Amino acid sequence: QVQLVESGGGLVQAGGSLRLSCTASGLTFSSYAMGWFRQAPGKERVAVARITFGGTGTYYTDSVKGRFTISRDNAKNTVYLQMNSLKPEDTAVYYCAARRGAPGGSYDYWGQGTQVTVSS
User: Fold this and answer.
1) Burial of 51 (0-12, 13-18, 19+ CB in 10 A)
2) Which residues fall within 8 angstroms of residue 56, CB to CB, at 6 or more apart?
3) pLDDT band (50, 70, 90) for residue 50
4) 3 with 25: CB under 8 angstroms?
5) Span 4-43, pLDDT tens digits
6) Which pLDDT does position 104 carry in this prediction?
7) What is the torsional sign of CA 87, 83, 100, 59?
8) What b-and-e string marks burial along 67-103, b requiring 16 or more CB atoms within 10 Å of the CB?
9) Is the separation of the CB atoms in 111 and 22 below 8 Å?
């Protein structure tokens, strides 16, 4: 079965950095677009960053542009989210997700999430 396992979350002060990782198994990773989503308490889950299956196209929500970078290593079946200049409003549970084909649209598989907490 497909599994997506996130790691790298934690507690960091505002202005700090974290790198999230998500390792996939049970699918042909290089055929899947990958995305990072987040859900803050009391809010809906939203897309943060997405990357095409080949890694040549990336997309970001406006609030993280210039601060977050999504990347992938298809040889390691892993997608990353480098988060710099973190703000308290970045506090959320972060999920990675996989979608066969293009990065737009609904996602087929989800990880269990990793908590990111940014203190002011």
Assistant:
1) buried
2) none
3) very high
4) yes
5) 999 999 999 999 999 999 999 999 999 999 999 999 999 9
6) 87
7) positive
8) ebbbebeeeebbbbbebeebeeebbbbbbbbbbeeeb
9) yes
